[in-house]
Automatic annotation (TrEMBL):
Segment forming the signal sequence: 1-26
Pfam family, one: PNP_UDP_1
Domain Nucleoside phosphorylase, first and last residues per copy: 46-338
Membrane-spanning residues: none
GO MF term (any one): catalytic activity
SUPFAM superfamilies (UniProt xref): Purine and uridine phosphorylases
A GO BP annotation: nucleoside metabolic process
Protein name, per record: OLC1v1037366C1
Assigned keywords, A-Z: Signal
Length: 382
């Protein structure tokens, strides 16, 4: 048994070859490969990718998460990969840290090292869609990275060629943000043109770039997520501060990500009118871009914690108050989704949304509206 595993390890090392290895002090040690190979034999796994600790904690504390006793986690390259089950489905949970770079690196490591059949990404998000409320949980069909720009020099107009545009590096197809639209007097910032990412898919030619802007989530995951739409979610922070209406799970068309915490009403409005964005975050498109290139199915569950600058200007960003509620709601939806997936894998066609009622919200309270409007937040929360 031991020898067999050892052989497998050697094969794996040879296969990965140039990536990591040159000698005995390779980046991935033989001992580490043995652990990875043993874990992978028990796969495939659902990969659960989460940005921050306050978003991950409710999952780790949830009764549906059961850590793997024999090997609860494995630390590698500054990341901790946690093994266990959620709703009896084998998962690997990993925390990325803030931002696109961290999310991309971590997702790539996860799918490179482990036997992953799909990626579920979850967390909180800002909201640019005035039809939704804080606490609602969104599942966008498409994601885009809207932080890759070509910033024009002052004086150039929309018909002037962008730097390196003729080489195909940059495009005018997606459009731009005109800073002067937001300033009464002329300013020197001119405009920025949104750019698609260069992608190098696993089944393409290395070093031959393709371009991608909108990244679709997996169709099957997105269809399955429809069954989550009746799920009951927590509506209150403590027992006193309740949202105007009970939050809902909703599939939406678009979410966008960039390395920017958006807390600005004008930019929020622009992002909604230009891109039809609902959820605004700092990681989902990075996870999606890695999954797109590695051909791994993915979906994102993002609970709204704030209005991305569109709220009452006398208040600080609503995430100060609502991030914990949103994080709990995101975990409730994630675990319900895993349960749906599990039953689908197991071919249990009779399992539907009504079975999900057993997922009760983690924060209970007497619903304060409309019976007791004074118990509601004195805030415009949409
Ligand atoms: C969990 O799944 C295993 C098979 O993978 C099965 O034997 C066991 O009964 C399941 N447990 C529950 C609580 O569904
Ligand atoms: C940019 O904004 C300025 C000020 O609103 C406007 O005069 C100009 O026409 C805009 N340019 C484009 C291309 O939209
Ligand atoms: C909220 O209400 C529940 C049930 O009424 C109670 O058990 C719990 O202690 C309360 N929590 C807080 C923070 O007041
Ligand atoms: C814009 O997004 C909303 C919310 O997801 C969706 O209902 C609507 O169909 C979208 N509009 C377009 C033109 O895609």
């Amino acid at each position: 048994m031991k020898i067999k595993l050892h052989k497998l390890t050697i094969c794996f090392i040879l296969a990965v070859g140039f990536l990591f290895l040159s000698s005995s002090d390779a980046a991935v040690s033989e001992n580490e490969w043995e652990k990875i190979a043993a874990i992978n034999k028990k796969g495939p796994y659902l990969g659960i990718v989460v940005p921050n600790n306050f978003e991950m904690s409710p999952l780790l504390q949830s009764p549906s998460f059961v850590p793997l006793k024999a090997l609860p986690y494995f630390d590698f390259a500054g990341k901790r990969f946690r093994f266990g089950k959620v709703e009896n489905e084998s998962v690997i949970v990993v925390l990325t840290g803030l931002s696109m770079l961290n999310a991309g690196i971590t997702t790539q490591l996860l799918v490179t090292l482990f036997n992953i059949k799909g990626i579920l990404h979850f967390g909180i998000a800002g909201n640019a869609n005035s039809e939704l409320q804080i606490g609602d949980v969104t599942i966008p069909r498409y994601w885009a990275h809207t932080g890759l720009w070509n910033w024009q020099r002052f004086g150039d107009g929309t018909d002037d060629e962008l730097a390196l545009e003729c080489h195909g590096d940059y495009t005018r197809e997606i459009g731009f943000l005109n800073f002067s639209d937001f300033n009464i007097d002329d300013n020197l910032l001119n405009r920025v043109w949104f750019q698609p990412e260069e992608v190098f898919p696993i089944d393409g030619n290395p070093e031959i770039r393709q371009h991608a802007f909108w990244i679709p989530v997996n169709n099957r995951y997105f269809s399955l997520a429809k069954n989550l739409e009746g799920l009951e979610l927590g509506a209150c922070v403590y027992n006193t501060t309740c949202l105007p209406r009970r939050p809902k799970v909703i599939r939406v068309e678009r979410g966008i990500s960039s390395n920017t915490f958006v807390d600005n009403a004008a930019y929020r409005k622009f992002l909604n009118s230009k891109f039809n964005a609902t959820a605004i975050d700092m990681e989902s498109a990075a996870v999606g871009l890695v999954c797109l290139q590695q051909r791994i199915p993915f979906v994102t569950i993002r609970a709204i914690s704030d209005l991305a600058g569109g709220g009452d200007s006398s208040m600080s960003n609503e995430a100060n108050s609502f991030a914990p509620l949103a994080a709990n709601n995101a975990v409730d939806v994630l675990t319900a989704f895993i349960s749906l997936l599990k039953h689908e894998y197991d071919g249990d066609a009779s399992f539907g949304s009504n079975q999900l009622k057993r997922f009760s919200p983690q924060q209970h309270c007497t619903f304060a509206f409309p019976q007791n409007p004074s118990g509601c937040m004195d805030l415009d929360l949409i």
